[in-house]
Amino acid sequence: MSSVLIAKGLKKSFDIRRGFTVLKLKALRGVDVELREKEILSIVGESGCGKTTLLRVLARIHLQDEGEIFLLGKRVEKKLSRKEELEYRRNVQMIFQDPFSALNPTKRIKSILERPVKIFKLDRNLIEKTLEEVELPIDTLQKFPHELSGGQKQRIVIARAILPRPKVLLADEPTSMLDVSIKAGVLNLLLKLKEDHSVSMIHVTHDLAAAKYVSDRICVMYAGLIVEEGPARSLVDEPLHPYTKLLKLAAPDPKRLNFKLNNTGEPPSLIDPPPGCPFMPRCPYAKKECAQFEELVQLDDRKVRCIMYV
Question: Cβ(22)–Cβ(169) under 8 Å?
Answer without folding.
Answer: no
